């Protein structure tokens, strides 16, 4: 059978780093509160000329270089984002153009913080369905542009950035010893809409709007939803927490990450944590974390890696792959 194998990875961050201390002059908060409640120490904030598409392009170029490929080798550019450069055309088509590609196809996918898990699962279907041989899967966000900078309960939590993977269809044995995507489990439930949403949009207010979140309510659901969907991925592949080399979670809050890992029996040394460095970068957080952990040699070829995310919608999902 064909499996979608990770051939390259890359990431990009805005130039400006904003440590917690700097936020103390914007809203009534403290470095101590932010670190204790979230684990976040700093985030990167996009400046003039830095956009979701420019960061996505940089991450895509880094992933292509890592894979030893050029844009000519790519059939599909798939971008997970909730902060597109324009309402349309898709940021993916913008990035495709920036890469100098006029062949193939490109589209955006919107599942907020779960966007990257949804996008890798979707890319895998396009590869296994025979529509694309190689896919650039990008998670790119500039959440700083939809934050209410007067609301301390949300503005301290998020950051900007982008990450990318090159997935390639490769003939495989069809066992869980194969490299590539092994199983994906996606969920959504719109009854939770008002707990995490943006209060604007082209068809309602005609404005971009600002992010609104009842953090405590989201927190209450997060660990249960994440662990349920990871259990589904283990069950579908007849694997357990012990078989796992790495858990690469969506990076929203250190307490959610630790709570989920503990409930699943995954020891802390197998969990990749970058929320301290990047804050919550929504769809970009998993590919940023993958780039850090593959780049420093922790994630190696052949390792069993679980990706998981939960966010606005609610949407959530888990995906098991062998690196
Ligand atoms: O990526 C999508 C998914 N999103 C998430 O996973 C976010 C989930 N939620 C969370 O991570 C946490 O709920 C937060 C980090 C947002 C908040 O942590 P919490 O422990 O749930 O705190 P809380 O909302 O219960 O607030 C505790 C106190 C409140 O004061 P009172 O009412 O106890 O007097 C807040 O007003 O902390 C106050 N507070 C702050 N204080 C200083 C809220 N924000 C801040 C702040 N600085 N930035």
Keywords:
five-stranded mixed β-sheet, globular, alpha/beta, four-stranded mixed β-sheet, 32% helix, 10 helices, 13 strands, 2 domains, Peroxisomal Thiolase, Chain A, domain 1, binds oxa(dethia)-CoA, single chain, 323 residues
Total strands: 13
Radius of gyration: 18 Å
Multimeric organization: single chain
Q: What is the CATH superfamily classification of the largest domain?
A: Thiolase/Chalcone synthase
CATH C-level category of the largest domain: Alpha Beta
Description:
It is built from ten helices and 13 strands. The strands form four sheets. Strands 1-7-6-4-5 form a five-stranded mixed β-sheet, sandwiched between helices. It has a four-stranded mixed β-sheet with strand order 8-13-12-11, sandwiched between helices. The protein has a two-stranded antiparallel sheet with strand order 2-3. It has two domains: 2-171, Thiolase/Chalcone synthase (Peroxisomal Thiolase, Chain A, domain 1); 180-322, Peroxisomal Thiolase, Chain A, domain 1, CATH 3.40.47. The radius of gyration is 18 Å and the shape is globular. The longest helix has 23 residues, at 215-237. It is of the alpha/beta class and 323 residues long. The model has no long low-confidence stretch (mean pLDDT 98). The chain has helices at 20-23, 31-38, 52-67, 91-98, 115-128, 152-155, 215-237, 254-264, 275-278, 285-295; strands at 2-12, 16-19, 42-45, 76-80, 105-109, 134-142, 160-171, 180-188, 196-198, 211-213, 246-249, 304-311, 315-322. Helix content is 32%, strand content 26%. Strand 4 (76-80), helix 4 (91-98) and strand 5 form a beta-alpha-beta unit.
